[in-house]
Every structure is written in structure tokens, then in C-alpha cells.
Amino acid sequence: MSVNKITLPIIFMAILSVAAMIFIHINEASLISFPVANLVPYVSISLVLIIIFNLSMRQALTMYVASIIALITIAHFYVIPGLKISDEQVKLVANTKHLLLSFIALLPIFGLVKIPAHKIFKSIIYLIGSLITWGFFSFLIAKMELPVIKLADNMFSSIGMISPFQDIWFSPLQFALIGMSAMTLLILVIKSSNNIYLLAIAFLAAFAIAHMSSLSIILFAILSSVLCLSSAMISSRNMAFNDELTGIPGRRSLTHYSEELSSQYAVVMIDIDFFKRFNDKYGHDAGDDVIKLVASKIAKTGNRGRAFRYGGEEFTLVFDGKLIDDVRETIEDLRVQLESYPMAIRIQRRPPKSASESRNRRQTPVKQDIVKVTCSFGIAESMLGSSDFKAAIKRADSALYKAKKGGRNCVRTAQT
Ligand SMILES: Nc1nc2c(ncn2[C@@H]2O[C@H](COP(=O)(O)OP(=O)(O)OP(=O)(O)O)[C@@H](O)[C@H]2O)c(=O)[nH]1
């Protein structure tokens, strides 16, 4: 068992959440009529569970747990009746909700974002970021009097319901946050550009927290849970089916995919040339860099080709519905592209001889080198009346062998 990257921020959040709840309980329990204290065991137990799942490296489970807890906690919050309070108390309750929901909203987010453990500072930025986002959204909605909100208000009142946009709580603190909010939003957008779930949840959280209505909170709870669950499913599927080094589908995916193929397809086996020599000269890490670069190029092959890492320095391309003649040109183009692509790799240096040499090295950037790599290709196609994919792979492998024998950096087909 080892502490993975998101464990420490979660522990940090757990301590903050429990401390905040105890504080709220001590200070406001007499003013509010629902038992805030009930949430303490919920959140504490759930955070302990999250930490345990994280310690056992079950990140997908962590996300499931985080999202289910978000749902249960919010449901608990709103199912408990008896909010008979004065105006002053409404404000206090609103404050309590803001605080609690900020933490709860952050749980799934922290389940999704892999923040390096040593950067607890980053967690604080995310916390402040989501609070500022909330400030920005409530300001926008409350102050701009968007026509769409009036429309929604009318719609809700016409069916006898209270609009979630009514009585938006708006404090002077939000004014102070507005200047910074645009910047924070921008940072959130940039940081989460390849994590659409984070972005969606941050926005939903901001929306829900800004409105403080059961409807928007429930909407948030449902949507964030769905987003977390789907993210968990996608990430566990990716973990099982994608190759760890290159990120492209691995051998297991290929087997899966072969079962969905039509009766006509072309399959290409690709192998990096003289890779052993390359590894010996530049080191294993540089070898890994090359495998990643080659994989990214192969994955971009057009003509509706699907790329897989077959294993080691071998890749497979599958063209469903195509035959050798349909893909020959595509593969020749890919070969030329790889051959002429200058790859930047990090060069490993020999171990430092002394402490002072080691210090000096840390100040100089890691050396890079530009290398050229070539690949050999073997193409085969499905046999009439046979759906045996393994046999097609074997034929492509034999064609690849011919390409290696024929001098490498060339394409051979199972026919020739
Ligand atoms: N860096 C790195 N090397 C790998 C990986 N998988 C396999 N290899 C290395 O790839 C090399 C493959 O070598 P060989 O099968 O002898 O073939 P080759 O040197 O490419 O020669 P030809 O295929 O005949 O052109 C071996 O040295 C493996 O250790 C990997 O994931 N990363």
C-alpha cells in the first residue's frame, strides 16, 4: 500500500470539513432547527472510506464513493423538515449551507483532479477558486437581471412553484470577489480543459450554491453524481482497456474490437526498427518516449484505422470494412511520416560522481536530443468466409517479418 497522489488533499479536506462542522455545530446549533451535527458522522465516515479506497489505489471506487456521499449528504440536508426560522436565522442557515456545500461540492472534484500530494497549496487554491466561482455566478445572476431568469420566474409561478431564482442571497463579500472571479474562472477553465467533468461540476456547484434552493441543489446533486459515476466508469474502463504507457487501446481492447469486426477488414502489424539498439544507446526512458511518440502518430492514422499497442514496440492498426488495396497508400504515408519526423527525447546521463556534480546538474536543464525512428509494416486482410482474426494477425506478422528481412523501414503485404 502506498499513498497515492490525491490522498493528502483529501485528508486535508477531511480535517477542514470536520473542523468546520464542529465549529458550526458549536456556534449555530441553537439557532437552526435541523441537526447539523448529524452530518459530522456522515462526512467523517465517508472521508475515512475515501482515504481507505485511495490508499488501496482504487481510484475508480473513490469516485463512486465520493459521488454517492455527495448525494446522500445533500439529500439528508434537504429531507430533514422544520426550517421554521426568522429572517436573521435564514441568513445563518444560508451561510451554513454555503460552507457545507462548498466542501461537499469539492469532494467529487477532489476525486477527479489528481493534485500532487506535496502541493496542498493547490487544494487551497481550488477551494478558494470554487468559492469565487460561486460568488461570480451569484453576482451575474442576481445583478444582471437576465431576461431568461425573469422568464423562468414566470414559468415557475404559473405552475404554482417557487422559482429557484427568487430571493438570491447576495452579500457584500461577493462584491469583493467579483474582480478576482473572472481570473479564477479563466484559470479553472484552462486547468480543466481536458477534464470536462471537473469543469461541469465546478459550474454546477457554483450554480447550486448560488441559488440555495432545493431544486437547484437536487439538480446539482443528481448531475454531479451522474458526472462522477460516468467519469468513474470511463476511467475504470480506460484503466482496463488502455495501454498505460501510450494511452492508446491495448491488447485487451484489440481482442474486444476483433469480436465486433465485420467480415471484411485489413490488419497491419507495425514494429519499431532496431529498437533494442536504441534502448541500449539512449536508455529505457528515452525508449519509452519514442514508443509514446510513435503511438501518437499511429493513433492519428486516417482512413478510419483503429490503433492498438500490441505489446513492447509493436502496434496494430485495424481497418474495418477495408482490404489491403484500400489501406496500402495510408500505410505508406504513415511510414514516410514516421521516417521524416524528428523526435525530441530526453537523454539519460551517467550517475553523478560527487555531491557537487549532482548539485550542478540540478541547475542545468535535462539534455534533449533529436532522433529519427523508422518502422516496418506488415499488412494482411480477412479471408473470404473466415472470421478468424488471430489467423489474420499471424499473416500480418509474417508480412512484417518479410519487411524486416527486406531491409526494414518498408511495407510488405501478406500477398506479396
Ligand atoms: N523502452 C522500452 N523498451 C521496450 C519496451 N517493450 C519492449 N522494449 C524493448 O524493445 C526491444 C525489442 O528488441 P527486438 O525485439 O530484438 O527488436 P529490435 O531491436 O527492434 O530489432 P528489429 O525489430 O529486428 O528491427 C527489446 O530490447 C525490449 O527490451 C518498452 O515498453 N519500453
What is the topological layout?
Elements: H1 7-28, H2 39-55, H3 59-79, H4 87-112, H5 120-143, H6 147-158, H7 172-191, H8 196-211, H9 214-241, H10 251-258, E1 265-272, H11 275-282, H12 284-299, E2 305-311, E3 314-320, H13 324-339, E4 343-346, H14 355-363, E5 368-371, E6 375-381, H15 389-405, E7 411-413
Helix pairs in contact: 1-2, 1-4, 2-3, 3-4, 3-9, 4-5, 4-8, 5-7, 5-8, 8-9, 11-12
Guanosine-5'-triphosphate (GTP) binds next to strand 1, helix 11 and helix 12.
Keywords:
2 domains; five-stranded mixed β-sheet; 15 helices; binds guanosine-5'-triphosphate; 416 residues; two-stranded antiparallel sheet; diguanylate cyclase; disordered N terminus; Alpha-Beta Plaits; alpha+beta
Model description:
This protein is α+β, with helices and mostly antiparallel strands and 416 residues long. The protein has two domains: 234 residues, no CATH class; 163 residues, 2-Layer Sandwich (Alpha-Beta Plaits). 62% of the residues lie in helices and 10% in strands. The chain is built from 15 helices and seven strands. β2 and β3 form a beta hairpin. The longest helix has 28 residues. The two termini are 53 Å apart. The site of guanosine-5'-triphosphate has 17 residues, from β1, α11 and α12. One of its GO terms (biological process) is cell adhesion involved in single-species biofilm formation. It comes from Glaciecola nitratireducens (strain JCM 12485 / KCTC 12276 / FR1064). It catalyses: 2 GTP = 3',3'-c-di-GMP + 2 diphosphate. This is diguanylate cyclase.
